[in-house]
UniProtKB/TrEMBL annotation:
Pfam families: DENN (PF02141), TPR_DENND3 (PF25570), WD40 (PF00400). Residues 507-525 have a biased composition (Polar residues). The gene is DENND3. It comes from Hydra vulgaris (Hydra). Residues 505-525 are annotated as: Disordered. InterPro entries: cDENN_dom, dDENN_dom, DENN_C, DENN_Domain_GEFs, TPR_DENND3, Tripartite_DENN, WD40/YVTN_repeat-like_dom_sf, WD40_repeat_dom_sf. GO terms for biological process: regulation of Rab protein signal transduction. This is DENN domain-containing protein 3. SUPFAM superfamilies: WD40 repeat-like. GO terms for molecular function: guanyl-nucleotide exchange factor activity.
Amino acid sequence: MQKNLIDFCVIIGANKDTNLEKVPCENPGEYGPYKQNVLAVLSANEAYFPEFYNKIDGHPYYKSNEVICPKLHHDDAKSSNYQNCSTEVLLFTKEVASNLVSFCFPSGGYGYKVSQPVHVSSLVLTNMGGSRSYAVYLTCTREYIAISDSFCEKILCTKSSDSENFPLHIPLCFCLVSSFPYFNTMKDCLSTLVPFLKKSEEELLSAVMNLAFCLLTTPVPPPGPLSVQLSLFGIEHIVHPADEAIFRVIDIDLRLPLFILSAEDVAKIIACLFTQQSIIFMAKEYSLLTMVIEAFLTYIDPFKWLFTYIPALPAAHADYIEAPGSFIIGLHSSLHSQVKHVRKDPNSGIVLVDLDKGVVDISSNINVPFMPDFVMQTLVMKLKNCSLVFEMSIVSSPSLFSFEEIKKQKNRFLDKINSDIKEIFFYMLVNLFGDVYNYINDQFFDKDAYLQCKPEDEKAFYKEVINSDSFSIFIGDRIKHRDCRDSFLLLSERLLSRKTSTHFRNRSSGTYTKSRSTNPTENQSISLNSVTEETVIYKMPTKHIESLSTGRYYKCHYKQLTSLLQGSNSLSNSLKASYLYLRGFAQIFSGLKIEGLRDLYSLNSLSPDLFPAENIFEVINNLNPFQIEQIKKEPFYKETAILRTISGNSMNARIDMQMFSSSLKLDKEEFLRRMATLKITDETAMWLFQVLLSERKENTDCIQPDQFSSFYKMWTYMMQESREVSGVKIDVADRILKVSAEINTSKGMGRIVLTTKQLLFVQLGAREYSVVAHLCDIKEISKYQQFSIIFTGIQALKIINSDQSIPPFNASLKEDRNVWFVLLSEMVAGNKASLALSDPMMVDEAANNVFIAQALLAIGFPLSIVAGVCRLSKRKKGEIGSLSDETRESLHIRLYPCEGQRATVMSITYVPANTEFSSTIWCGMGSGVIVVYETEKWEHLFELRSAKSRISCLRYVAINQVWAGSFDSVIYVINTVTTKLEQKLQSHCRSVSDIAVDDSPDTYSLIWSSGFDGQVFCWHSETRKCVTSFNLKGVRTLNQIIPTNDGRLWCITLDKIIVVDVLSDECPVLKYLSVPNRTEPVHFSCSMKFNDKEIWVGCKSEVRLVIWNTKTFTCEQVELESRIQICSMLFAGGSVWVGNKDGKIFVMCPITKKIILELNAHTDNVKSICETREGNVVTGSSSKDGQLCVWNTLLGYEVIDGKRIYRKMTVSNSISTFELVDNFFDL
């Protein structure tokens, strides 16, 4: 929803419920290091206490059902409270446990004999998409009594009478996490907790919830003139916005680097940032590192640092500095010797900034081009002339005796000096790059012309910068928003227009001329503040207990903003837009969602940059059906395409979630049914049922509804893949399964990305990803301990490609190593099985297993249990199954038209290509659905749902027409171009059994249809009118009809063949045919027209083929080898393809009636078969198998001179021959 001042408040440490467990360490202290735990995660909607055994009272900030304590019941480690925890909080907690804990205790968590001073520090975290979160944490110590215990290192309690036990002061950390860099504001807010730190645990926790709830509900003002003021424990705090959308929020002291480093060194570091050098900052105080580095990033704003950025790196992760590539890392000074050792590597090229000594040391093996002399001199001069010390500014002012007055005076000074410093660096940026607008043509920036216009002594710097990723982003924003006249453009225009004496550019010649002025600050009096508007402060309403519990707080907030907007005639557009932005969200939170959306929409005309599209998406996703209908009537909805797109997708998501929400327990049958709808195999579903069942210690055979809901919620979240990793768009066709944290690899610092078919690497700061390996090409995945200059025994993976020319890929995954090993091994096994069986579903099955594993890990299951779902990687070689050489060579691809719930492929028809569309096959399913695939890449195109029952037959009958007969007695006429249903033919009384096209030269596009009851209709293909019809008497199941060129219709029933003269008006029966010399009737299963003279009929219960002569009505009986029970037949590629009852496909020579090939890919009755003009045969099977197999009509091969030579069946009048085809593969 709306971005508030903080996203989470986290408590980290140890208490009497967690006890103390020692962490392995090379140099342990007397009391530690101990394991630190996430004790609480507070969000706007819930309070999660994963380590508390006692009930927590969240009133008035949280309702009872919003306070979640999973360990509240000792006998049930995963109680129902746990299941109610939101996905967002669970995943954040998991990330916190592995990252934030080590960052808040960078040197490890120790106990102390005496109380330690309260300490405040800050840090920056980067998420998977490359977005940064900013955190400020306050660390104090609380006194406990440490009691030795045989099961763990120490048990903590508050009282003890045993004299041998001793008091121990245990660190406790309170951390605020925000999407915005409000470092000083968060520090001030955390400091209000200091009076509560020595109070009881209950009082302290209540104060923390008060603070968290206040900050979680305080909105961040949008860029513009409006600031927000809040009151916390009687102290007022002001939240300032960013000046413009292109700039960062400034809430730090920009003087800090200038206190520590010389102006010349500051200019050197700026040059290093522009040229993307690897920079290490070192200091004795972690708290100093983040502030100094953030100040430098503010200096170069709107340029962005895109590479590895960890301003306060814990000692446990110091090996990151050994990774190749650019980075900014802050380290404790105690690691100075290790850094020195790394810098000795001639390939390292690290710039070291020692904040303790105020020294910048640039490695001798790198050449950093510095800024142009004029710009650098101007910057240095201005910085030296800047008055940085507050006390110097009040020397001539009268003394103040009120603390509040002194604080206000100091804050005014800091605001002014921050503004002055930002202005100095902003002028530097405009002096350096203000002329880029002259080289932007349409959507292109002319790098060569821009570089050519620079003087020779400046070209090295500009060449390095314009090829950097930061500059590419910067210039891309300028191109994308060319019509946006921000302060950078305005100041650029002003400066360039006034550069007549110091540094001007001849636009016609594209050259620079430098003046002889010796004063770099001359004629530079333009004020940046002249383009900004005076700040207005909006005071948030006071949060009373009553307003928190009843929800009146947001209503007061809304009314207060409404009163301010009533005088909107006197307000500027930017201030009015800020008020509307805040009021829109206030109304949404108070339940007036339509009114809130109306306010947010109005931002389009007042300030388009503030239009919150992502927030609106979330709001509409949570509207109920009545509200969706209501919003569609709003004028702004009809005018805004984005809202219509969002609302169109929102209902489906809610219906899907409701389907899996239930208050009833799930038995095995119901659980398996739900898993089938998620396309999870029965084998995996059974395993999951047992795992969820064993989670509870109750003696039951049903899954609790909250258990299933928790799993499904997390599984759904895992399925919602992101296509952006560290700012890089992952545009592969594969599905993204897992993304690692930022890790050190043999390719540099970055993230590895596991997709369904590849392992990718995204280097931090890179503009595109690289392929580590295709999963089917991975030869070996091994776990090993990596040794580095700084650390030994880092948990890592080595991935070896089957291509020996590709070097192994190493990834230092640390504590995530074993998880990655399990998931990656599963996907490799799935890909190799898919290749061996020509079955893409094996990849899908492996991917589903990976998603299930991640969902179970996220809700607290250990890896030892979760690994059981990765079944493919655990199977021994040969257990998955294999195909015969003939099948593997002939099988092109398997398709699954009804994934999850398999259905019989009743009929298949081929639709040839036309000028607009490529050729397709249409599959009529037993579920009533028609599934369509294109025949080039065999990709699924769409599904049609018109029939009320099973599709019994499909036929491409004329140009752009497919007719589908159904068990609901209707024939559906579908246009293959528009895919729309054009007509329903409803003359049949019972189920339609077959549709046939009369291709006789004397007919005029006649189409025959039959019913199982013996009804036969003849239709005109253009008018779709019935031409004639008749009813066969005494028929037992009319299955197929075959029109012949002599005006006859062969009707194949269950036990006889009826030949009808359709040229006569009455359509008389000419012959009743049955197999001669048989005491019992022979039942027929299928038939096909081989040529004008022969009709082949398969017998249902016998291994027999009957070939009828269409002229003489005599038959030949052929005993089939291999015990074939024919279910379907097709003449294709010069051979007869026969589908068997047990799923086998036999390719038969039509002359000798001998089997040429036996193919085995189906596991159930081969129900349907068709041929494509591209040279493929497509077979479909019954519901136990429910798949399509696409076969090549190149059949078999011979080995000649060590090469496979494929052969294709051709038929002459008397003999069958093989035509040699060019070889495809070498042996």
